[in-house]
Amino acid sequence: MEKNIKLTDGTELKVGLVGNANSPTIMLPVAKESVYGQDAEHLKLWGVDPELGKHFVEGLMDKFRILHFDYEGHRLQHPNPENLTPESIVKDILTIANEMNVKKFSYYGYSWLALVGLLLAIRTDRLESLIMGGFPPIDGPYKEMMVVTNKTYKQALSNQNASVVDEQSQISPEKVDWDNIQVKIDTNQTKQFVTMYEHLMEFDDREIQHKLAIPRLAFAGEKDTIVYGENFGNVTVDIIGILQNKKQELEQLGWDIEILKGKDMDHTKAMQPATVLPLIKAWFIKHLK
């Protein structure tokens, strides 16, 4: 079943629901639309599965009912620059569940969509379990991401009429000068993430841990450390460092923690279906009887 659902800002998002109605439901906001042709080849250069969403859905639907959509893709196409707040995002997620008549569900998100899962878990009792990939459940890098997104936004403002590398450039990753790269993207696309992180500056992810009474897993690749150059504020977003340093504490708080091994297991590699599916499928099977 597919349905176009109107979100809080009035834009419509295509949502799918597949699998056995008697099985537990897993929400996948990371289910990107498939990409083909030259665009697919370019994604492969970066280690990205051009059929990421399709492979996640197909890999899980034999055991679970899958509620799937591409929330990030939708927000890049339909930015919400002034109002992409934790509250509006959670309202979007719950609107989707309501419109698809899904009362209880588990949630898997990666990177900022993993953070969305945490924000969702403390605002509703409808979650049955939570998996966060590529974002730590405590001591999250909110301030660092505020710096990066703010710098990106300012670059986008100043580069609107400049001839610089844009986000769709067909350049290969080996040839990118990450210390000096400049971005040319829609200012509203990046402004919405500035808005989101602004609203998280006072968020205490330790203080909310007692509200989490559901099974939950956090994971990251062992090379998930991003060092940003001067253009992005000279900050380091050390996802794996936080997860490794806080592993014992997180386990005491009730989290399952997994570190994905591999010398190339960075933020991008650790989100691909070939890497992630075996981990999350086995975990969901164990916890969703």
Structure in words:
It comes from Paenibacillus lactis 154. InterPro entries: AB_hydrolase_fold. The chain is an alpha/beta fold and 289 residues long. It has one domain: Alpha/Beta hydrolase fold, catalytic domain (Rossmann fold), CATH 3.40.50. 37% of the residues lie in helices and 18% in strands. It is built from 10 helices and 10 strands. The strands form 2 sheets. It has an 8-stranded mixed β-sheet, with helices on both faces. Helix 5 links the parallel strand 5 and strand 6 (127-133). The chain is globular. The two termini are 24 Å apart. The model is unreliable at 163-176 (pLDDT under 50).
Q: What is this structure's SSE topology?
A:
Elements: E1 2-6, E2 12-18, E3 25-28, H1 37-45, H2 52-60, E4 65-68, H3 71-77, H4 86-99, E5 105-110, H5 112-121, E6 127-133, H6 142-158, H7 187-198, E7 216-221, E8 225-227, E9 236-238, H8 239-245, H9 247-252, E10 255-260, H10 273-287
Parallel strand pairs: 3-4, 3-5, 5-6, 6-7, 7-10
Antiparallel strand pairs: 1-2, 2-4, 8-9
